[in-house]
Amino acid sequence: MRIDVVTIFPEYLEPLNVSLVGKARARGRLDVRVHDLRGWAHDRHHTVDDTPYGGGPGMVMKPEPWGEALDAVLSDPPREGEGAAEPVVIVPTPSGRPFTQELAVELAAAPWLVFTPARYEGIDGRVMEEYGARLDLRELSIGDYVLAGGEAPVLVMVEAIARLLPGVLGNADSHRDDSFAPGAMAGLLEGPVYTKPPEWRGREVPEVLISGHHGRIARWRRDEALRRTALNRPDLLARCAPEALDREDRATLAELGWRPGPDGRFGRASDGMEE
């Protein structure tokens, strides 16, 4: 996979040289190219922003440097088979679609991603109109909060996507039981995990995990996932399809005070759900 990032703070992307992403780059699994937007600003101050039309606080990033930068990046595509790869352009913004594990899996299958982290009040809207009219452009948000710029979301999204690429994780199965991952635990948060020693500061590892009984261990992990999801993300449980829950799941949820509603989906009894 190739990843291009256009930014006014190339140094912010230095973490992409370390840990799993850095190792993937060193092994040639990931080609990351960081471009300084100010290289396409032609006045002596390398200006990339101006006041907003219509008034209001803050500054808006100008379309001219972004247009020249993206044209330059897009003019040098990676080669896939007999033709040039098509890019997915990703605009990090708090007003975008939520970035999820499902989207990370989808984007991990793309050969080329181009990120456009903004600063100030964002990028002139005509840039999204221009490139969205002819490319797969996604405006994505990593959460319901506002940051000083889009570089931190780029780091989050690149790491989430890169760890799904073949050969990046040491154990190819490592991500299969992640929170939000498709599979047996789909829709649930991952439960607590433990390692040696068996006792630490008077706290022991749950006995079931050292029992060697794989069926009991799998059930315990499932129950702990249900408990953690009910506590931290009840919205995920409320959306869980009834057919995804087996008899033991339902018993665990009943112990936690959850009941099925008329449509079969579970909700907290305290919220008025009835048998």
From TrEMBL:
It comes from Streptomyces hoynatensis. Belongs to the RNA methyltransferase TrmD family. Homodimer. Residues 255-275 are annotated as: Disordered. Keywords: Cytoplasm, Methyltransferase, S-adenosyl-L-methionine, Transferase, tRNA processing. It comes from the Bacteria. Pfam families: tRNA_m1G_MT (PF01746). S-adenosyl-L-methionine binds at residues 142-147. One of its GO terms (molecular function) is tRNA (guanine(37)-N1)-methyltransferase activity. GO terms for cellular component: cytosol. Its EC number is 2.1.1.228. It catalyses: guanosine(37) in tRNA + S-adenosyl-L-methionine = N(1)-methylguanosine(37) in tRNA + S-adenosyl-L-homocysteine + H(+). Specifically methylates guanosine-37 in various tRNAs. Its main location: cytoplasm. NCBIfam families: PRK00026.1, trmD. GO terms for biological process: tRNA N1-guanine methylation. It is an enzyme of class 2 (transferase). It is found in: Cytoplasm. Residues 1-238 form the tRNA methyltransferase TRMD/TRM10-type domain. This is tRNA (guanine-N(1)-)-methyltransferase.
